[in-house]
Specification:
29% of the residues lie in helices and 50% in strands. It is built from two helices and seven strands, in the order E-E-E-E-E-E-E-H-H.
Length: 140
């Protein structure tokens, strides 16, 4: 298929798509291939994505998955065997309710003078992100 796909919910690709995809959640099956621009909230990649993908929150690359080109993500999870190739950039998690908590922890991190304090601040940031991710998975 060639063209633009825009959806408010989940898009599942098991064939070949050339063009643009914009949706809440993208699932690319093991036989799926997407060449073009992708802008989604969450992505679960079992197949191949080329060109450019921007994931606001969670990008999951499964063992059979390949992401090539330019990719941005809020949080990333890669299974053993998954491939990331090209230019990647973490945009940070884009949760409105968590932005204030992460900002407060970042200030603590920036002001920390001892290595133990820096490590504790980093663990709190990871904890905030993990807790939010678990809450989101319960909703799905």
């Amino acid at each position: 298929m060639t063209g633009v796909i825009s959806a408010e919910d989940t898009v599942v690709v098991d064939g070949i798509v050339e063009g643009e995809i914009a949706c809440e959640r993208l699932v690319i099956g093991p036989t799926g291939v997407v060449q073009g621009t992708v802008a989604v909230t969450d992505a679960d990649i079992h197949g191949k994505v080329g060109s450019e993908i921007t994931v606001k929150q969670l990008l999951v690359v499964r063992a059979t998955g390949r992401v090539e080109g330019k990719w941005g993500y809020g949080e990333i999870e890669v299974e053993k065997g998954g491939v990331l190739s090209g230019q990647g950039e973490s945009t940070g998690l884009l949760f409105e309710e968590e932005e204030q908590s992460v900002s407060r922890v970042s200030v603590v991190n920036a002001r920390a003078e001892e290595e133990d304090e820096v490590e504790a601040a980093n663990l709190r940031v990871a904890s905030v992100a993990s807790r939010t991710l678990r809450e989101r998975r319960k909703l799905v």
